[in-house]
């Protein structure tokens, strides 16, 4: 049994903008504490993928509401949920209140597992799990995040100009932070971790230190 399980349910909420490193940190935290992990952004990508596959306009709120209440989480191979196009589409879909409401219960069920869980996204600490004892808000400068995404896309064979990716990052930041429903922001009791100048291992060590501080408290 993991240390987290012995102490009872313990939810770690990891929020932050695109390419901040939150997914990597959340996965490493889940492995470190022996907890199940959910990348909530994949749920929004699934909705976007289902809409695109069905030929819907990504801004069709009626279609989005129908799909979010009926899609099968097991029907999408992860390689169809990655890439620049689907990431941009997911950001648009995530601004639809009906989509966020439709995914709320799925995310909260995951977080309610015995022993706890690690979830990463845009509104975990503020909306999905506001009572989570450990909350991190992971960030980095737009330029650093664009460079990370550029490297990732090149590795997948997507030759996308850096300037275009930087523009995407800034556009997504504005959309995620400016939406009326569950905007991207740090929870009042979250600890901000800027990964701009950190290696992965340094960021992981810092994240574990933050969580340990909350566990001790």
Explain briefly what this protein structure is.
Helix content is 53%, strand content 12%.
β-strand percent reads 5-15%
Q: Gyration radius, to the nearest Å?
A: 17 Å
Helical segment tally? Answer: 10
- N-to-C CA distance: 22 Å
Q: Give helix and strand order, one letter per element, not per position.
A: HEHEHHHHEHEHHEH
What best-fitting shape do the alpha-carbon axes yield?
A: globular
Major β-sheet annotation: 5 strands, parallel
The strands making up the biggest β-sheet line up spatially as 2-3-1-4-5
- What structural class do you assign from the helix and strand content? alpha/beta
Describe this structure in words.
The protein has a 5-stranded parallel beta sheet, sandwiched between helices. The longest helix has 17 residues. The protein has 10 helices and 5 strands.
Give the helix/strand layout:
Elements: H1 3-6, E1 10-15, H2 22-33, E2 37-39, H3 41-53, H4 61-68, H5 84-93, H6 97-111, E3 116-121, H7 124-128, E4 134-139, H8 142-155, H9 162-178, E5 191-194, H10 200-216
Helix pairs in contact: 2-10, 3-4, 3-5, 4-6, 5-9, 8-9
Features:
217 residues; alpha/beta; 5-stranded parallel sheet; 12% strand; disordered N terminus
